[in-house]
Amino acid sequence: GSSSPALGPEFVPGAVVNVSGNVTEYNGDMMGTGSLTEIISPTVTFVSAPTSTPTPLNGTAMIGTLADSTTGEPFEGTMIELDNVKVTQQAMGSFYVGRMQIGSTTFGFDDDILRTMDPVDTCYLKVVGIWTYLSFASDEIFAILPISVTPGGTCP
How far apart are CA 140 and CA 107, in angstroms? Predict the structure, then answer.
């Protein structure tokens, strides 16, 4: 596989950057209909330091839109905050992919940023992370890559 050079310390959340490269849609198993938008061989250049802390989009009320195969794609790469989330499948296996739920809507989670190993029926008051599409999962599903989790809350 290929690797990219490490980004400098100026690359922090909220910094303004320019990203250029070829955009493509990736589907890990080529059987599903969904795909993950990605940039091949990106060039990332720093523009300016952040002027404020990034605010996540509160996705709780729109979780059905986020997790739907026809409406979720525009939110790929967006920092999302979800409230009152329940673990319905513990992260396990070599990829540490699990399932979470708000109301009757189920979505995935993965450990790309933060490994969350809490058991089924764990409640989170808040989950903040990056919205993505797991094109390699056996059932292909929209998911959150948690940055932080706050225990508690009311499980659905």
Answer: 10
Say which DSSP state 38 is in: E
CA angle 47, 48, 51 (to 5 degrees): 150
> Would the pLDDT of 4 be above 80?
no
The model's pTM is 0.80
Cα–Cα separations (whole angstroms), residue 29 to 2, 76, 135, 138, 139? 20, 19, 7, 8, 10
In the block, tokens 């490994």 appear at: 115
pLDDT in tens, 26-74: 666 555 566 667 788 888 889 999 999 899 999 999 999 999 988 998 9
Q: Quick one: how far is CA 69 from the chain centroid?
A: 15
